[in-house]
Amino acid sequence: MTRYREHREIYTRDLSKYSIYPSIKKPEEYQARKLHVGQVIVVDVKDIDETGRGVSTYGPYTIKINGGGTVGDRAKIRITSIKENEAMADLIELL
């Protein structure tokens, strides 16, 4: 019987279009932070990994920073590669 239905998942429909209330956009601080290659961001170094690179977090991403930095430093970095939840970055300057 389900092969004749146009919509198989009836509980995942967008019901907000039937609401009498206007939709309110979420502020930027609540949206997921996204990274892209070449982006320059400022982060705090939270840890050092076994090879001596600085480790930081940005949203759901763990960032490994090439070029130094110690725990507690604030660094301006440029993203060089991204894999799922891990990113590599080069150190531009320590702030």
TrEMBL record:
Residues 34-93 form the TRAM domain. PROSITE patterns: TRAM (PS50926). This is TRAM domain-containing protein. It comes from Fervidicoccus fontis.
